[in-house]
Amino acid sequence: MLAIVIIGSGNVAQHLIRAFSQSGSIEVVQVFARNAEAVSRLIDADKITSDFAQLKEVPLYLIAVADKAVAEVSAKIPFEGKIVAHTSGSISLSELDPKNTRAAFYPVQTFSKDKAVDFRQIPIGIEIEDPTQKTILEDLARAISGKVFEMDSKQRKALHVAAVFSCNFVNHLYALGNVICDRHNIPFEVLQPLILETANKITTLSPAQAQTGPAIRGDFGTINAHLELLDDNQSAIYQLLTQSIIDHGKKL
Amino acid sequence: MLAIVIIGSGNVAQHLIRAFSQSGSIEVVQVFARNAEAVSRLIDADKITSDFAQLKEVPLYLIAVADKAVAEVSAKIPFEGKIVAHTSGSISLSELDPKNTRAAFYPVQTFSKDKAVDFRQIPIGIEIEDPTQKTILEDLARAISGKVFEMDSKQRKALHVAAVFSCNFVNHLYALGNVICDRHNIPFEVLQPLILETANKITTLSPAQAQTGPAIRGDFGTINAHLELLDDNQSAIYQLLTQSIIDHGKKL
Asked: Which listed residue, A119, B8, B24, B39, has the most CB atoms within 10 A of its CB?
């Protein structure tokens, strides 16, 4: 059993603690949590600490904290020559303290409180500066995921940007759809099958092939009628995305 | 058995022909198709016509053609006093020829060629100018869908706009994510679990509750690092949606 310490108590940390605890092949010997309450249902109280001086010595530390705190936390680990991996999509290995072997362990998923996820289906992108220690990081990832792949820091950053478009921005478009529905007394649930089908479609078609709607048809009558229904912010987004769909359609 | 004629041979028409033929309670006695080839696998050749003079007399005609052709097609139906329903999200009843009872039959879904859909899960919004004939339209919709609801022309237009945001624009964001992945040699498949989870999430959380990412966290370090990776068009979309997420977050 590989013994690890997880540093963090937010959504990602909580999901990782749960997944590793259920894995059977990884032992979470300790969790560093400034907010012990947040992880108290996931691990025994005597395995939680908020004092770096009390950190147990293990071969691998997993840092799942806010991006801006990763570098500082990596410097506070009171050991050397271990593997220290962060879980962020947007941080380079070089931002970690070099006293330990620097690594990344990036689960490509959106984590919300109170929403369970199936970790076996979550791709995990790994990177480690010392190739001779890659197996340990790989074993860690394979303990919870069936989709482990290698990527460098630049690719991880690009993937994180792509994820912001395909997830964070997508969710905001759902939110704008919700606002429009509310304003016209239409239950937002009416859009759910459409939303699910739109997501499912791109498992069999490329997004370029799957594009439908007035923009790709060049249906300016409908586009202009739509713009009349929108407020300034909705209208700006509608026009920019419509133009982008038209421009990308021309390149195909 | 209610006998109907379907006018059209595009994606929506094809999916409707298939769904009604399998319904057991609706008889598609004829399909009007300028392109007979497109529907030849769905209905017998002797039931296909491209001549309005040959149109059979039935109680109900369903027009599933391009938006701009709907009005003209409704005028060419050589009968009066029937129900004529279009399937468009963006057309008012008033655009149909008044010689027949005007109606709308709007399946809230995205239809692509070669991609089967489960019609029972597709909401269908119905509207008819003569309330005494509502039952016929309702029976038609219930023959293929478990989610039939009434809405007026203004609500249908608003729902169509909301669907453009939640489906067409969403798909374009997938496409932009795909472009970014391609440019950095990352397989787009890596994003699929994230995309599916993002869509699934809003069946249990509201989109406002489900929002994650650098914009809602106010993480400008990550936002600025992302902008450096983007081309002008991607950057304009990134900035506009990021600002919109921040502004909506403030209202909560």
From this structure: B8
